[in-house]
Amino acid sequence: MKTVAFLHTADAHISTFDTLFEGADPDVARTHRAHPEWLSEAREAGLTEDLRKRVADILIEQASTADAVLCTCSTIGPIADDVSATHKNVFRIDRPLMEKAADHNGKIIVAICVESTLKPTIDLLSEVFAEKAKTLEPVIARCNAAWPHFWSGEREQFCQIIAAEVKRVYADTDNPGCVVLAQASMAVAAPFLSDLPIPVYGSPDAALETILQSLNTE
């Protein structure tokens, strides 16, 4: 039986990914570790060397026993990228998402709820666009007001605030190509944006495709 290990910074992601994998391939076993304090730490002090080491150590430990490891936090995603250089079964959740975005022309609307997500997201998006010899034109939709509703479990309000801000930015953007919901937690807002005439991408579904492909090619 294939095994996927997850590293989260929010407990809510456990049920999200269990549901996704149950629907796609219930024969894949799953293990989860959650460290919500790491997101708070990264927001306050950035990706310090100490934090990088702690995250990397756990990812390497998971990689030694699981067929694939998925880091589901976009803020600490760069650490997963670093680890994946030597542990090819470690994946960063938002890389497949950015690769989908790079298939589009026009400006990329990047929606975030946490400011610490912005730099690693734009850095990764720029890297992927450069690999495809394309010029990135990001437009940022800051949905910070939604974040408290995520932590309090107010899903409807969380989604509504994200959708309202993304639609406002879309209306003010010339030649938009697609919308990127940069954080895994934001994917639930995609149905609230179904009336937009451009694609809206969330990271969990894109990462699911990549993980399953990696398991099937081993």
Describe this structure in words.
- The protein is α/β, with parallel strands linked by helices and 218 residues long.
- It folds into 2 domains: 3-93 and 205-216, 3-Layer(aba) Sandwich (Rossmann fold); 96-202, Rossmann fold, CATH 3.40.50.1860.
- The chain is built from 9 helices and 8 strands.
- It has helices at residues 12-24, 36-45, 49-63, 77-84, 95-101, 118-131, 147-151, 155-171, 203-216, and strands at 3-8, 29-34, 68-71, 90-92, 107-112, 138-142, 176-181, 200-202.
- Strands 2-1-3-4 form a 4-stranded parallel β-sheet, sandwiched between helices.
- Helix 3 (49-63) packs across helix 4 (77-84) and helix 5 packs across helix 6 (118-131).
- The longest helix has 17 residues, at 155-171.
- The two termini are 12 Å apart.
Largest sheet features: 4 strands, parallel
Number of helices: 9
Q: CATH topology of the largest domain, which one? A: Rossmann fold
CATH architecture of the largest domain: 3-Layer(aba) Sandwich
* CATH domain class name of the largest domain: Alpha Beta
Strands, total number: 8
Distance between the termini: 12 Å
Name the helix and strand elements from N-terminus to C-terminus, one letter apiece: EHEHHEHEHEHEHHEEH
- Give the DSSP E fraction (strand runs of 2 or more residues): 15-25%
* Count of individual domains: 2
Could you name the ranges where pLDDT drops below 50 across 5 or more consecutive residues?
none
Major β-sheet strand ordering = 2-1-3-4
**Helix content, binned percent:** 40-55%
Helix/strand/pairing category? alpha/beta
- Overall pLDDT score: 94
Shape: globular
What Rg do the Cα atoms give? 17 Å
